Amino acid sequence: MTDISIIGLGAMGSALARAQLKAGRSITVWNRTSEKATPLVSAGATSAATVSEAISASPVTITCVKSHPQTKELLTAASKVLPEKTIIELSTGGAKDAEDLAQLIENAGGQWMVGIINAYPHMIGDDETVLSVVGTAEQWAAHGSIIKAMGGSSVHVGDEAGMLAALFAGLFTVRQGFMWGMIYGALAAKQAGIPLKTFSDLVPISMGMMKPYYDYFAATAPNATYDDPPATMRTYAAALEDVLASYEVLNARDELPRLFVEMAQKGMDAGLEDKALTAVIDVLANEN
Ligand SMILES: NC(=O)c1ccc[n+]([C@@H]2O[C@H](COP(=O)([O-])OP(=O)(O)OC[C@H]3O[C@@H](n4cnc5c(N)ncnc54)[C@H](OP(=O)(O)O)[C@@H]3O)[C@@H](O)[C@H]2O)c1
After folding, report:
1. What's the confidence (pLDDT) of residue 237?
2. Residue 64 shares a structural domain with residue 147
3. What spacing in Å lies between the alpha carbon of 126 and ligand 1's midpoint?
4. What are the two backbone dihedrals, phi and then psi, of residue 45, each rounded to the nearest 5 degrees?
5. If 0-12 CB within 10 Å is exposed, 13-18 middle and 19+ buried, where does residue 239 land?
6. Cα of 159 to ligand 1 centre, how many Å?
7. Domain holding 134: CATH number?
8. Cα–Cα distance, 181 to 55 (Å, whole number)
9. Residue 31 zone, left/alpha/beta (φ > 0; ψ -120 to 50; rest)
10. Do residues 257 and 205 share a domain?
């Protein structure tokens, strides 16, 4: 028996395997193209001939192949050895596939965790590296140290397999909000005859406000504490109205500023004018 088995020895799976060896754990490895196991075997790993043999060799198996459907295919063929085993799926994938995979493992009598790796292979094992993981609190308590050997700043997000895709969608939307903000900003600048070089050079002034924006969000949204903000919903709503008016005068496309105005107005209509702008989260969420 070994401590951990690793299935999938591509760029990422090999890095995960090396991190576990470095943490002092004994490992069994399997890869579809068996030659990729050779460097790890030289470093002390045991090579398994089949997926079933790999899973049988350890209480915990990390899977890191192309995506969840490929893991599902491999585990379906090895379902007889899943009872009492924990599978930590670290291939990237969608919400529905993650839920299907978790169901397959549960039905076969095993336990699961699913994670997203927010890093390149060379960052695996670093203290700052983050794997976002879902699974029960008990699984996290039992196997958090295995995860932290691969990413020292890893976090337990919750217990639903589909949560990771939602987390990715939410965080990508944060970044894309900034990207599309620049794109719509460029539309206003172009209509006004401001060279995009000038506009682009001035964007870092807005970027300087990102940290205060984040601090405002973090101080209000997580605990729903929306009272006495440094800038109220009324202040934001008025500024957004002015921005939209400028787009209209310029005859520039205005879907994005119009969306901002409409959303802030929903907060105002709900009587939240003295609250933080982030109080609108509850208003919008309750519309579902
Ligand atoms: N590389 C990164 O920067 C990075 C970052 C975050 C997350 N990830 C995620 O990590 C996972 C692996 O990525 P990678 O960079 O290691 O990719 P990779 O180097 O292309 O390796 C892919 C791995 O998946 C295996 N595989 C693919 N289809 C398979 C199948 N049908 N049956 C069995 N094994 C199969 C490959 O086996 P063969 O060797 O036989 O082809 C190989 O071990 C992906 O889900 C990726 O999104 C990667």
Report:
1. 98
2. yes
3. 20
4. -75, 155
5. middle
6. 25
7. 3.40.50.720
8. 48
9. beta
10. yes
